[in-house]
Amino acid sequence: MKVKKVLVSQPKPTSDKSPYFELAAKNNIKIDFRPFIHVEGVAAKEFRQTRIQILDHSAVIFTSRTAIDHFFRICKDLRIVVPDSMKYFCISEATAFYLQKYIVYRKRKIFYANGRFTDLVEVMKKHKDEKFLVPLSHIHKEDIPNLLEKGGFIYTKAILYKTVSSDLSDLSDIKYDVLVFFSPSGIKSLQQNFPDFKQNDTRIASFGPSTAEAVREAGLRLDIEAPTPQAPSMAMALEQFIKKTNK
Questions:
Q1: Most buried pick, 21, 33, 95, 225, via CB within 10 A?
Q2: How far apart are CA 74 and CA 57, in angstroms?
Q3: pLDDT band at 113 (very low <50, low <70, confident <90, very high)
Q4: Lowest mean pLDDT among 121-125, 151-155, 167-171, 187-191
Q5: Does residue 76 carry a pLDDT above 80?
Q6: What is the pLDDT of residue 202?
Q7: DSSP 70
Q8: Where in the sequence of the chain do the CATH 3.40.50.10090 domains occur?
Q9: What is the pLDDT of residue 140?
Q10: pLDDT digits (tens, 9 = 90+) for 172-196
C-alpha cells in the first residue's frame, strides 16, 4: 500500500528548509503536523505544596529551554527575586544563551556542556559546594538524578511542568498512511485520544529506543524506526521507506 499522507506528531517547522517539506515535494505526498502532546506549567499553589524553597539553592541546572521558561515563570508567580549570585549550569551553549531572555547574560555565572548530561556533571565537579536545583518535567530521564547521586551532589528535583496529551478529537475521521512519533508520551496520547484505534494498514514510525519500546508495549506494529546507521534522522528513514513502498 503506497504512502500518500503522513502525520508527524510535532509542531509544523518554522523554516522553509525543513527536510519534511523537501520530502513531501520530492515524493508527491502530503505531510501534516500536529503535536500529540503539550507542556503545562505546574501552578504556583501546587508547587508551594512541595515545600521546595528556590532561594535555599545557589545554583540551577537547566537541561532544556522549557526548563528555563518554567523556572522563571514559577519565580515570577511566587514573586521570587533570583539573586545575581545564582549560578546556572546548562546542558549546552544554545540552552545557556537562551537565558538572555530572562537575565543579563554577561553579568551572571553561567556554565555549559556540549549537549550531554554526563559532560555537564564533569563541569559541575568544580562546584561541589553548591546546592543545586533541577527543574524537570514529571516525566524525565532517571539518569539525571542517578548521575547527580553518583557524583555526590547536593540537589533538589523541582517538578515545574508536565507533558500532557493534547485533544485530538478533530482528527478522528482523518486517515493517514504513516503516523510519526518522537516520544512515549505521543503513543500514550494516541491511546488516550483513540482508545479504539486499530492499526490495520497504518504504518507507525518512531524516533529513539524509548519510543520504539512504547510502540511495542502498546501492542502496535513498528514499521519505521530511527535513528539507524542508514537513517540517522526521521526524515531520512521516512524517505527510504517511501521510496521502497511507492515504487
A1: 95
A2: 15
A3: very high
A4: 167-171
A5: yes
A6: 96
A7: H
A8: 5-36+166-245, 40-163
A9: 79
A10: 777 899 999 999 999 999 999 999 9
Q: Do β-strands 59-62 and 37-41 pair in parallel, antiparallel, or remain unpaired?
A: unpaired
The Cα–Cα gap between 233 and 229 comes to 10
The DSSP secondary-structure symbol of 99 reads G
How far are the Cα atoms of 1, 69, 146, 179, 206 from residue 203, in angstroms, in the given order?
10, 35, 36, 6, 10
H or E element at residue 42: none
> CATH: 3.30.450.20, 2.60.410.10, 3.40.50.10090, 3.40.190.10. Which one for 5-36+166-245?
3.40.50.10090
| Amino acid at residue number 67 | A
Instruction: Give the architecture (CATH level 2) of 40-163.
Output: 3-Layer(aba) Sandwich (3.40)
φ, ψ at 157 (rounded to 5°): -80, 130
Q: What is the dihedral of CA 194, 211, 67, 151, to 10 degrees?
A: 140
- In the chain, which residue ranges form alpha helices assigned H by DSSP? 19-27, 44-48, 65-77, 93-98, 117-124, 143-150, 184-193, 209-217, 234-245
| Average pLDDT estimate for 212-220 | 96
